[in-house]
Design brief:
Elements: E1 7-10, H1 14-25, E2 30-33, E3 45-48, H2 50-58, H3 62-65, E4 74-79, E5 85-90, H4 93-99, E6 104-107, H5 108-120, E7 125-128, E8 133-138, E9 143-147, E10 152-155, E11 157-160, E12 178-190, E13 202-208, E14 211-218, E15 223-231, H6 233-236, H7 245-251, H8 257-263, E16 272-276, E17 288-290, H9 292-296, H10 305-322, H11 327-357, H12 361-373, H13 383-386
Parallel strand pairs: 1-2, 1-11, 2-7, 4-13, 11-17
Antiparallel strand pairs: 3-6, 4-5, 8-9, 9-10, 12-15, 12-16, 13-14, 14-15
């Protein structure tokens, strides 16, 4: 059955919109389905490494986003209990020179809106909200997407950008997302309402037993984003009140005074349980392919969820352009370039978080000693993430003369 589009994208988050935009810019006609009544992002702050800014620049979105973003001077890593500064990651000129792009923090909705603006302005994309996917199935020469209202859509290429609970992923994996045992509280505070004892141009990461808290400005410096995470042992004990403000207060009870004052600024009434996924060996079938959290949902410790999704978008577009009319070859090329790196992100994030939260006093001493010894401008640990893993080359459409 003929369709008025070349690619169907399921999911209108940062990864889905980025994919739709990249494909449209390459000349593909794209139809995007979003289950929510309108495009929106959950949460506030978003960290964007140089790899994400590079991707946004290649998509033509960075210039519009830049005035709303914040380029922190550095990230300070602090001991949550003693208040000691353990290390500083310098984000200034040496960092930008090394990677070609800055480290940026922004409001999630600002990033989504700028991508949405670009997608809505492109004639090759159509958007459908309030579109709930019931199933995704393979057929002889296309994939079949059935919506809960009975609508059936066919496409030779279906991109599952439908998040951690992806319906598209069910073609590979029918397991449930994994609860990490961690719970987050997050929110923003007007910068004008703060009386900070530290430079607001710095990101600050507090790490300690069973907890971490990160704070940084967003929205051009008008808002201050705070995220507090805890390990919920009350959940392990089977208590009904796990993840509550009472448990948060217990976990953070021995925190140093500067951290406690920041924690007091949070609206501690809505807990967010944190989930991830185990890696899978393939993200594609004959006519479907996964990107972003649908493919490789990961814990937050590398701050790479959105960054990896944007790299997925560009790489997939390059491979589809390089293999016209051959989705299987395109998907194989995409997986060959992306699967190993994204899987590494998933697997490295887990022990990295365990190290931040460790209760082992010996491990705490060794961890803190390691941090104290590193130089502020030592970026060797980040090269595998932030150097160019995609390469230029998202093709532009040929316009007939």
């Amino acid at each position: 059955m003929a369709t008025p589009f070349d690619v169907l994208v399921i999911g209108g988050g940062i990864g889905g919109l980025g994919t739709a935009l990249a494909l449209a810019q390459s000349g593909k006609r794209v139809h995007l389905l979003e289950q929510a009544p309108e495009f929106a992002e959950i949460g506030a702050g978003l960290q964007l490494g140089p790899n994400a800014i590079r991707s946004l620049d290649r998509l033509g979105v960075w210039e519009a986003l830049e005035p709303l973003a914040v380029k922190p001077r550095s990230c300070l890593i602090m001991d949550a209990v003693t208040g000691e500064r353990l290390t500083r990651i310098e984000f200034g000129a040496p960092f930008v020179e090394h990677y070609g792009y800055p480290y940026v923090v922004a409001h999630r909705s600002d990033v989504l809106q700028k991508l949405l603006d670009a997608v809505q302005a492109h004639h090759n994309v159509t958007l459908a909200t309030d579109s709930h996917v019931e199933s995704v199935e393979e057929s002889a020469d296309h994939a079949v997407v059935t919506l809960t209202d009975g609508t059936v859509l066919n496409s030779e290429v279906v991109v599952g950008a439908d998040g951690i609970r992806s319906r598209t992923r069910l073609l590979h994996d029918d397991s449930e997302p994994l609860f990490t045992g961690q719970v987050a509280y997050r929110g923003t505070v007007p910068m004008a309402d703060l009386d900070l004892d530290f430079d607001p141009s710095d990101m600050i990461l507090w790490i300690g037993p069973n907890r971490h808290l990160i704070q940084y400005p967003v929205r051009g410096g008008d808002l201050y984003n705070i995220v507090a995470v805890m390990e919920s042992h009350w959940h392990t004990q089977g208590r009904d009140d796990w993840g509550s403000k009472a448990e948060l207060d217990e976990v953070y009870a021995d925190s140093c005074a500067p951290l406690a004052s920041v924690l007091d600024l949070l609206d501690n009434h809505k807990p967010w349980p944190i989930f991830d996924r185990d890696p899978i060996g393939t993200w594609s079938t004959e006519h479907t392919v996964l990107i972003g959290d649908a493919a490789h949902a990961m814990r937050q410790y590398l701050a790479q969820g959105a960054c990896q999704a944007l790299e997925d978008a560009l790489t997939l577009t390059q491979e589809i352009a390089a293999h016209p009319g051959d989705p299987q070859a395109a998907f194989a090329g995409y997986e060959g370039r992306r699967l190993e790196l994204a899987t590494k992100c998933q697997l490295v994030a887990r022990p990295w978080g365990d190290l931040w939260h460790t209760l082992d006093t010996t491990m705490q001493v060794l961890r803190n000693k390691y941090f104290r010894l590193r130089a502020d401008d030592d970026y060797s640990e980040f090269d595998w993430l932030y150097l160019d893993n995609v390469g230029a080359g998202v093709p532009q459409p040929v316009v007939a003369g």
